[in-house]
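Notes on consecutive records. When two proteins share a document, each keeps its own sequence and its own token line. Never mix them. Below: protein one.
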Amino acid sequence: MARRNFPRSTFDSINVTPLIDTLFFLLIIFMVTAPLLEYTVEVSPPQMNADPMKPDEDSKIVNVKANGDIIFERRVVTGQELVRLLAEIPKTGNPKPVFLRADGDLKFKNVIHVMKLIREGGYPNVLFVTEEEPK
């Protein structure tokens, strides 16, 4: 029976292609789901017809639930904490507008109060988020 001679050299490289493929796959998953996380707060804004606007990745969104809870960056904050957190955000030139998502059943004076808090935090431009009216 003939004997085969195999080369006795070792492989000194690691194949990282599967690792890179997995990394890109996870990156795409996070890029798709990250913007959706902000709209997981149970708020049903009032309905009205307006031109659609899309917040960019630098935009800040303040949610106000029907019970009056203020949610900023996925946590419940008080009015003074909201002012402090908004004031701590570094601003360059004109600050981006803040999107205010308030529940449609909330009293108007509560919405105006939160809008004043946002302005105290250094953001004079407040945009209201509404739902599209059914046709």
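Protein two starts on the next line and is unrelated to protein one.
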Amino acid sequence: MLDSKAATPLYVQLIEILERQITFGELEVGERLPSESELAKLYGVSIITVRNAVGELCKRGLLERKQGKGTFVRKAKFMRDSRTLSGFTESCRKQGMVPGARTLEKDVVPLGAKTARELGQAPGSKGIYLSRLRFADQESVIIEHSYFPMKYALLLEKDFDDCSLFEYLKEAYHVTVARSDKEIELCRATKTEGELLGVPENAPLILVKSTTYTQTGEPLYVGTQVMNGERFTLQITQGALI
């Protein structure tokens, strides 16, 4: 039962109880919640209180309503903090997830005019292309496409399946990522992207375009990340202009 005399509103108390049950596995992913009337009776509150609590948990991505079927526990979304320069591997570990990767393609390729310019290379230059499928707890969530200057040719010799690219660059080239300029937009899944990410063709995806720089200010790589929007939350902080 909830405490009607407490300063914390009843719906907030119910949110905390349900969130705790989801976090500790008492309510499992895919499990159907009792109906609103059943929850109201169970916790001694009104249906409006239950509705407000469940609605808030749906907004947070912990629950989802399915028309005509009920309310179900969702998989926790992968939180990507765009306020920091941590790599995918580190982000996964911080959230208690197991990171993984599968190399899709790795080769020397001609750079397009825009990519060459962003990498500080001459027109018509070649570069290192690396494409990987990234996993969080064995679920595919990101397709990466990255272009590097030829000075990073050792990337062709390294196996990047289940390996941190950032950690390797620091070890082999003594470079760290100091800045990353990003553009974020929506796109639609191609047939191949849909197959890799386990979503239907034309499903909405998050597209992040990046130009990343080393601690000395040199361009390190230009790349894109295509993310399953249903599985991702991007955190961004803005401050007031001075």
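For the record: The chain has a mean pLDDT of 87.
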